[in-house]
Write a structure and sequence with these properties.
It contains eleven helices and eight strands. The protein is an alpha+beta fold. It folds into two domains: 202 residues; 134 residues, no CATH class. Strands 3-2-1-4-5 form a five-stranded antiparallel β-sheet. A three-stranded antiparallel β-sheet has the order 6-7-8, sandwiched between helices. α1 packs across α2 and α5 packs antiparallel against α6. The termini are far apart.
Length: 345
């Protein structure tokens, strides 16, 4: 009998392996039986590590020892994992939509531009699924190319139906006055884990890409030679929060203090800038009392109200006021540009 999490881990890892064959080194084959005998916990660590950090950290919680019972705590974490996965996916799609509209590559229909600001100013699971479907159908109908080409093939009607399932369920489960019996909770934990597994399998291509934070960019200009741009970056999809630092020299430069989705760590030729929707405060220097409330973490945008951007951390659980960030005003300006560009006819 499979252990808790085992079926999810093995099925998602198998899909990741298709996109990242190097993961095969974590599998073992019994020479006598000819079957894979890899410890699913080892594979689980790789599933966590190879999803972008905002998703990986939720899976780390789901796979933890405190979630080994089919109880309300585990059920809530399953919902949190699907919600954070949809949030990250929405931000990737919105970031590309903003770029393509700004560059004149795409015309946004009135049905999307008219409702975008209202949908995006206060995010919910329902708004995530609406945006994923609307933007996905727009790119399909227009024949436009995705930065992550797998979106165009993996996100079909079946996938849209699978993510739509969670919206009314989340509304129901989110209200704690609804008293589910222990038996009902156990059944939902099993059923919802299977549904989560399918969605993560369809998103397994994310393991091909790298989420990084740009810490610093320095110009290196030798005499009589072209300038190179020395990037100090940190890889944000790790199995723990001690992110891996790298240094890359490039003839091109990226944006400062940005969170980027890269096709390869070897080059900045192709990337998607997720700021101001995903930000990293680990590089912020706490050099003023006004900054004492800032927590160092990777944060995801949640709402825009009264000219203020609000974020939730991936590891920090308490609410944080990030208005004292050194680049906060720039983040607000970027957000307004994003909404204005997509909402404009």
């Amino acid at each position: 009998m499979a252990q808790l999490n085992e079926n999810l881990i093995r099925s998602v890892f198998a899909e990741m392996l298709k996109y990242k064959p190097s993961l095969a080194k974590f599998t073992m084959v019994d020479e006598d039986e000819g079957e894979e005998v890899a410890d699913y916990r080892i594979l689980g660590d790789q599933v966590i590590k190879n999803f972008p950090w905002p998703i990986g950290v939720e899976l780390r919680r789901l796979f933890s020892g405190s979630m080994r019972q089919l109880n309300r705590l585990r059920l809530d974490q399953i919902f949190k994992t699907i919600e954070r996965s949809m949030q990250f996916l929405t931000f990737v799609m919105v970031a590309q939509l903003w770029n393509d509209k700004k560059d004149g590559k795409l015309k946004i229909p009135d049905s999307l531009s008219r409702d975008f600001e209202a949908r995006f100013s206060v995010l919910s699971l329902g708004n995530f699924t609406w945006l994923i479907r609307a933007i996905g159908n727009l790119y399909k109908d227009s024949g436009s190319t995705w930065f992550m080409e797998e979106i165009g093939t993996n996100f079909d009607k079946k996938f849209f139906t699978a993510i739509d399932f969670w919206v009314p369920e989340r509304n129901e489960i989110g209200h704690y006055q609804i008293n589910l019996t222990a038996e009902e909770i156990e059944k939902r934990c099993v059923e919802y884990e299977e549904k989560l597994s399918y969605i993560l399998q369809q998103m397994a291509f994310l393991s091909k890409y790298r989420l990084v934070s740009v810490r610093e960019i320095k110009v290196n200009k030798p005499k009589y030679r072209d300038a190179h741009f020395h990037h100090v970056i940190e890889l944000l999809n790790s199995s723990d929060s001690d992110f891996t630092a790298k240094e890359v020299d490039e003839k091109k430069y990226s944006e400062s203090n940005a969170v980027l989705l890269l096709k390869s760590l070897k080059s900045f030729d192709e990337y998607l800038n997720l700021s101001p929707l995903v930000i990293d405060t680990n590089g912020e220097i706490i050099d003023d009392k006004e900054k004492f409330n800032i927590k160092k973490d990777v944060f995801m945008y949640t709402k825009f109200r009264n000219d203020q951007l609000m974020y939730l951390g991936t590891e920090v659980t308490e609410k944080c006021d990030l208005r004292s960030l050194s680049n906060y005003s720039a983040l607000v300006e970027e957000y307004k540009e994003l909404v204005g560009e997509i909402s404009a006819n």
